[in-house]
Write a structure and sequence with these properties.
Strand content: over 45%
Shape: flat
CATH class of the largest domain: Mainly Beta
Structural class: mainly beta
Number of strands: 22
Order of helices and strands: HEEEEEEHEEEEEEEEHEEEEEEEE
Radius of gyration: 26 Å
CATH architecture of the largest domain: Sandwich
CATH topology of the largest domain: Immunoglobulin-like
Distance between the termini: 106 Å
Strand order of the largest sheet: 4-3-6-7
């Protein structure tokens, strides 16, 4: 009995010590990441990072690398191309929080297992696009006249026949491209999806980026010579038609004003992509008479 009392006393003495040891320390430099499929899409995921230790830190601390594209923010979207079997895709988060992590960035990797598309559906590869501030230009679509293509840009603007769009605000959007052959019997619609991530905390507002890069271009419609006024040196100019074909344009001048001869450009509607020396590029609409 005396021995039993000693064991009970020893257990009571050790209980608070054992309880203290079970509480594992929380590393404030490790954000929580949730990966969720986006409904009514194929291969598209919403990726959300949160850190309760610093809920109000800037989005710029979160840099995502998906291999072919990058994105910035606590919440980003990403889409993967279809495959015939389950594919494992690895991506990384570079988290830079000086207050919580020190001066060295921390890199975390994640893996998503993407299943093949459901049987009976037609899903194409992720369409390519360029993004300049809040304007996107899509380089998708067939050059075959019988193939009809339309676009939904994910911001409630409805169906558009044009491969370019300007978003009203920053944020994350899913671009859906639909293609079908109007001569096919029965007609089969094929889908393709891409993620559009527009950062909300850049050093310049969206409108300011446009103004600072491109001042104006004229005339529009153009017949023979297009003039571009800009505050940045231009590296190249490409005119893309509605079928996705690109026409590199030669320009004269290396300062604030350049001119482009457009006599050999076929008549029609174009997306004019202007690439600047600081790495940015901007897309605007152009009509050629």
């Amino acid at each position: 009995m005396k021995r039993l009392k000693l064991l009970v006393a020893a257990g009571l003495f050790l209980m608070p010590m054992m309880k203290a040891q079970t509480a594992a320390p929380v590393n404030p430099c490790v954000p929580n990441v949730a990966i969720t499929p986006i409904p009514n899409t194929y291969g598209c995921y919403s990726i959300v990072a949160t850190n309760t230790a610093a809920p109000n830190e800037p989005d710029s601390y979160y840099q995502w690398n998906f291999g072919n594209v990058t994105a910035t923010g606590k919440t980003v979207y990403h889409c993967y191309s279809p495959s015939i079997g389950v594919m494992n895709h690895t991506f990384s988060l570079t988290y830079t929080s000086p207050a919580l992590c020190g001066i060295q960035p921390n890199v975390y990797t994640f893996t998503i297992s993407v299943p093949p598309p459901p049987m009976g559906t037609c899903v194409n590869n992720v369409p390519t696009f360029s993004l300049s501030a809040n304007s996107v230009t899509v380089y998708a679509g067939s050059v075959i006249p019988e193939i009809i293509t339309n676009y939904q840009y994910g911001d409630g603007s409805g169906v558009s026949p044009y491969p370019y769009h300007t978003y009203g605000s920053c944020g994350n959007y899913i671009l859906e491209v639909r293609e079908w052959d109007m001569n096919a019997v029965p007609s089969v619609t094929c889908y393709a999806y891409a993620a559009i991530n527009i950062p909300c905390n850049s050093s310049l507002a969206i409108g300011e980026q446009h103004i600072n890069a491109l001042k104006r271009y004229y005339p529009n419609p153009v017949q023979e010579v297009l003039t571009i006024e800009t505050s940045q040196r231009i590296e190249k100019v490409i005119a893309g038609d509605l079928m996705g074909k690109g026409y590199p344009l030669r320009f004269n001048g290396d300062g604030d004003i350049v001119t482009i001869e457009t006599t050999k450009l076929p008549a029609g509607a174009y997306v004019l992509s202007i690439y600047f020396s600081d790495g940015r590029h901007q897309s605007v609409k152009l009509l050629k008479d």
